[in-house]
Write a sequence for this structure.
């Protein structure tokens, strides 16, 4: 956790909301063990979703869930990403809640987003082997930063001037932090051609390709 906080607290770290939450000590933490990976993930995310439902929208904006994975014996970025997607798939397959009626089941829809226990979420995946997309490297372990999708609609809505300004600022900082490299898959939720799932994991040489989606919908 110390390495994660050190990285996020760097002056040039791009995510301003993440920096603010870490400095305020307001993040929620979840540690996922090697042996009970998906069980830990289900229990921890279930607890988080239940708490989020009791919080005001203003309060929850400063309360992202930071998921730290114990397993870190991967040799490549692709293997790290395969492991992360496999756990996310298991989380979806074992979701005890209903899929939200307002979220399409089509991964190719610009309105699709991952959901658990009926709550739409955004999953930011960060990996130790990222060397080009350094903004997605938060230390020596895989890290998920999970926020309710509604948080982004509140602070950076795609159709608002203020939302555009905030996104532009953060993405400009990301490009600078990544030494001028700009991700080609970051988009705006709801815009035609912008797929949310491609924003969870970013690409670089050696990464898992977005050409074949590693996730499948399984709605019972």
């Amino acid at each position: 956790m110390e390495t994660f906080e050190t990285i996020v607290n760097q002056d040039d770290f791009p995510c301003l909301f993440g920096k603010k939450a870490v400095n305020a000590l307001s993040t929620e933490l979840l540690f996922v063990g090697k042996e009970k990976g998906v069980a830990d993930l289900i229990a921890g995310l279930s607890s988080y979703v239940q708490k989020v439902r009791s919080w005001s929208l203003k309060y929850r904006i400063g309360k992202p869930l930071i998921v730290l994975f114990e397993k870190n014996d991967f040799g490549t970025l692709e293997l790290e990403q395969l492991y992360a997607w496999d756990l996310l798939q298991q989380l979806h397959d074992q979701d005890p809640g209903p899929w939200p009626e307002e979220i399409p089941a089509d991964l190719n829809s610009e309105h699709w987003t991952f959901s658990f226990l009926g709550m739409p979420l955004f999953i930011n995946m960060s990996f130790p082997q990222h060397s080009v997309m350094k903004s997605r490297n938060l230390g020596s372990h895989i890290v998920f930063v999970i926020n309710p999708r509604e948080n982004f609609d509140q602070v950076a809505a795609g159709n608002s001037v203020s939302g555009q300004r905030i996104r532009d600022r953060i993405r400009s900082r990301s490009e600078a932090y990544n030494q001028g490299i700009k991700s080609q898959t970051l988009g705006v939720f709801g815009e035609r051609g912008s797929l949310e799932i491609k924003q969870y994991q970013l690409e670089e040489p050696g990464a898992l390709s977005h050409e074949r989606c590693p996730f499948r919908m399984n709605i019972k």
